[in-house]
UniProtKB/TrEMBL annotation:
Residues 26-250 form the Solute-binding protein family 3/N-terminal domain. This is Transporter substrate-binding domain-containing protein. The keyword Cell division does not apply. Belongs to the bacterial solute-binding protein 3 family. Keywords: Signal.
Length: 251
């Protein structure tokens, strides 16, 4: 390879115009999602999203590094192309304009309301059953098309975390907490409120979580490669085996 051509390739790689040339390290970002992305006591990332992406990166021949951020920050890093993979977002029309998603999704969530056991709150799936109720919702979360269509008419109390939503609920400052079962179980246990809250039916929605990447040509092949490997892992049972220890449902 002539020196001038090597120099050109290096410059293009630095500018991000030649995707993933020769061992380029992938940067994957996420936030605290129980069962999907968590930091253990030593600060090491683990969870289904981490384990699955490690397998995928190894099969594709890439080293991968994981970094932990607040959810809004993690999304921004991927949207701006400063990170390669966002771990676990739900897929929506609005997010389609910000990211490209590797198909298929790799986990499934039941999105639900929780209420205090000493309350008479209920919901039947209609807007009318939510009127007059103070609802704790988590900043940056998407709750599905039905809930999103109702948002403008609801009394919403935005909180930074699932834990804080339950604290608002228990303090009587919210009537319902809108969250998901996977995130809620460990928070309920940590707060010691298993006998003080209950899950309402019907579910608000069912959402599927994905690996999301920056939009554009530089990440299109990586998106396709991640999707292809995920399909293989689903077909041969490896994804189910990785999910079992975490109790995470698959799509």
């Amino acid at each position: 390879m002539r020196p001038t051509f090597r120099t050109l390739c290096f410059v293009l790689w630095v500018l991000g115009l030649v995707p993933f040339a020769d061992g380029r390290e992938l940067l994957a970002v996420g936030t605290e999602f129980p069962g999907i992305y968590v930091l253990d006591r030593s600060g090491e990332p683990r969870g289904l999203g981490v384990d699955a992406l490690r397998v995928i990166a190894r099969e594709l021949g890439y080293p991968v590094r994981f970094e932990h951020y607040p959810w809004a920050r993690a999304q921004k890093l991927v949207e701006e192309g400063r990170a390669d993979v966002l771990i676990g977002p739900y897929r929506t029309a609005a997010r389609e304009r910000r990211f490209q998603f590797a198909e298929p999704g790799f986990y499934r969530d039941s999105v639900v309301f929780y209420a205090r056991t000493d309350s008479a709150n209920s919901w039947d799936g209609t807007l009318e059953s939510l009127m007059g109720k103070r609802i704790a919702i988590i900043h940056g979360w998407i709750y599905g098309e039905r809930f999103e269509a109702m948002r403008g008419q609801l009394d919403q109390h935005v909180t930074p975390s699932v834990e804080h939503a339950f604290k608002l609920l228990m303090a009587g400052r919210a009537d319902l907490a809108a969250t998901n079962v996977r995130d809620s179980r460990p928070r309920i246990e940590e707060l010691g409120i298993a006998d003080k809250v209950y899950r309402l039916t019907p579910d608000i929605d069912t959402q599927v979580g994905y690996f999301a990447l920056p939009r554009g040509e530089t990440h299109r092949q990586l998106r396709d490669d991640i999707g292809r490997t995920l399909r293989q892992m689903r077909a041969d049972g490896r994804l189910a085996k990785l999910a079992k220890p975490y109790g995470v449902p698959l799509p």
